[in-house]
Amino acid sequence: MKSDKVLDAKGLACPMPIVRTKKAMNELESGQILEVHATDKGFKSDLAAWSKLGGHDILEQAEDGDVLKFWVQKG
């Protein structure tokens, strides 16, 4: 999936992946897509809750070994 920005949050522990995601999302326009790579297993539920609260859509998610990948469209 094509993304407008890629965020590498691998190796970061809670709450840093979601903090970095929020910062990166603030740099995007509505409708643009942020691709996030993280290794914190708790990030999956954090991202789901944060996206719902912020009106963003998780378009796709995948696992590549230990790396979780998410494509989030800014609401």
Automatic annotation (TrEMBL):
Source organism, top-level taxon: Bacteria
SUPFAM superfamilies (UniProt xref): SirA-like
PROSITE patterns named among the record's database cross-references: UPF0033 (PS01148)
PANTHER family in UniProt: SULFUR CARRIER PROTEIN YEDF-RELATED
Residue spans crossing the bilayer: none
UniProt-recorded name of the protein: UPF0033 domain-containing protein
Homology family: Belongs to the sulfur carrier protein TusA family.
